Amino acid sequence: SFKLEELVTISSFLNSFVFKMIWDGIVENARGETLELFHSVHGWLMVLYERDCRRRFAPEDHWLRKDLKPSVLFQELDKDKKRAQLLLQYIPHVIPHKNRVLLFRNMVTKEKEKLGLVETSSASPHVTHITIRRSRMLEDGYEQLRQLSQNAMKGVIRVKFVNDLGVDEAGIDQDGVFKEFLEEIIKKVFDPALNLFKTTSGDERLYPSPTSYIHENYLQLFEFVGKMLGKAVYEGIVVDVPFASFFLSQLLGHHHSVFYSSVDELPSLDSEFYKNLTSIKRYDGDISDLGLTLSYDEDVMGQVGFHSL
Predict the structure, then answer these.
(1) Residues in domain HECT (predicted)?
(2) Residue range 199-211, pLDDT digits in tens
């Protein structure tokens, strides 16, 4: 019911309103109607923000708060100030992405120091050594890493590669070999041929395969994939994993929100199907003439099954 330029104005106001409620300390002590007002306005704001993420309508840097200095925010977080924590919880988009990355790296460094995972003059961190056969990289990595404790996974992992003849490869791992191992593992688990993940038509974005259950241990494999991605993020290793936005929404828990719409996410799975489905709303003739059926076909290992909805 609003024009795009009106949505730009509305979202700008809502963004400022929520920011002020948090930064001026109103939300910290809010009760009753004030708290209800905040959650109501915040909900509307996030609907517009997520819509802009899916299909941009707002100008560049529209969501950023230029009056919020990153240095001030970092200082407040170091002092455990509530308003800074609430800002990250509710509207992290007001902070430039590069500053959020710096903030995250700073948090990781502090946690490593706290857990004793950093080399110092007086102590050395515990190191986990694993041996990986080139020809069975995924299998060996899965068997040796899936049972590691949380702290061991966050710590130093040294990799020794063994070639097809069973001979150790030369070289000492100073994170470079582990980086290679991690990149190769991720490449293998996201290969559609493994049928753990599939790609969407068109832009080829990744999402869990509906037939991944053909692997007897598919749930454990998904958990292993999560650990590998978590390790990559934790160590600042960039990996090329283009997830479909509807899957990311699930990971972020957006589907639990009252504002969530699966139809809004449908284009990221099948844009052609979304286009055809929404065209029905504008169809002037008799819908029965289209011969529509509430069903779908599923291809499982070459066997196509018909499912009625």
Answers:
(1) 149-309
(2) 998 788 999 998 8
